[in-house]
Amino acid sequence: MANNFEYFSPTRVVFGKETEKQTGKLIREYGGSRVLVLYGGKSAVRSGLLDLVKESLKEEELYFQELGGIVPNPHLDKVYEGIEIGKNEGIDFLLAVGGGSVIDTAKAIAYGLGEPEKDVWELYEHTRKARKCLPVASVLTIAAAGSETSRSSVITNEKTLEKRAYDDNLARPKFAIMNPEFTKTLPDYQTESGCTDIMMHTIERYFTNGGNMEITDALAEGLLRTVMENAKILHTEPDNYDARAEIMWAGSLAHNDLTGCGNDGGDFMSHKLEHELGGMFDVTHGAGLAAIWPSWARYVYKYCLPRFVKYAKNVMGVTSGGSDEETALLGIKAMEEFYHSIGMPVNLKELGIHPTEEQIREMAEGCLKASGSSTGSAKKLDLQDMIRIYQMAN
Ligand code: NZQ
Ligand code: ZN
Fold first, then answer.
1. N or C, which end of the chain is more exposed by having fewer CB within 10 Å?
2. Which residue numbers delimit the Alcohol dehydrogenase iron-type/glycerol dehydrogenase GldA domain (predicted)?
3. Could you read off the pLDDT of 303-330 as tens digits, one per residue?
């Protein structure tokens, strides 16, 4: 049966070639006049995108300051730095030129400037909720996290190695500019980690034990098949514009909640288990998900068998005439083969890390703490379950 739901995806998407030229005009339209432009390492500088964006801001005579150097698994210190600049410069609009890490930092700074008297990290510790947030928008350079339309922001406290998410509609971006051309410079590992993350945002919403709708499943299955097909194309043809476009749009649709309407909010334990890996070992998010998911799936599939069977048949094309359990396991195996075909790991060794038993316990305890009462839908996980999944993946 379909659960009640609310679908709220207010972000204006401006998609296609040369759309970055509209950045300044759009910021004006959404009331921005003093802009903080955020970016990561040097990829947006090298590609020329940052210059194009700045030109567009100048055309609209917008005042702006820049803050670069945001790293993947972005740090809290950078957020505080951005908040300081924002206060001193009277910033009223945050523009991220980059991927999930840059957009999530922009959201965190926007929360910080919305309530400047409070410590923004409290949101990520879930000790209070945000009341105000400045407007955020992005010029996206990597199809992956879906932050360009999502309500999430994920920040790592580099002192405690805690990687934590805060979700709130207040930070849904005003607009997202997506020109697939600018994703052609991505290294293959980042492209494929991105494709994995996109699939996982849909998979997390698919493997649930509560509330389902045919239309939602059909959208999810179509999205997953399309991402697999185009991820394979990009593995050998990184310059294929159409494949880049398919993946880029899929990235937003996978995480703007469309593929979860009518279910119980999703499982999301693979993500929570991965965030601990990101905090402790600084791994690439999508690759970390690929390394965890097969172990999670083999651990929980019996508790969510009809969904695993449906997935095996409708997404992975399994045609075995065997039992439901056999079909489900073949589906998981086919998924591993797919990950390998695009150069993704399927366990922690292939990811290049080998946590000790002590580190596994520490990650499981962190995961339990960060999860609160939301510890899964396919199967609710307790501490021992989490330890077991990390051990299986190790
Ligand atoms: O820093 P630069 O030089 O830009 O290089 C980046 C970075 O090294 C590079 N890159 C990005 N666009 C490029 C490019 N290189 C060449 N050409 C381009 N066009 O890619 C690397 C990764 O960038 P990052 O922003 O970290 O990637 P992604 O979008 O995968 O974001 C990952 C972060 O988002 C979080 C993850 O946990 C992780 O911290 N997530 C955020 C979510 C959200 N806000 O809704 C949901 C996700 O589940 C996820 O947890
Ligand atoms: Zn993700």
1. N
2. 10-180
3. 999 999 999 999 999 997 799 999 999 9
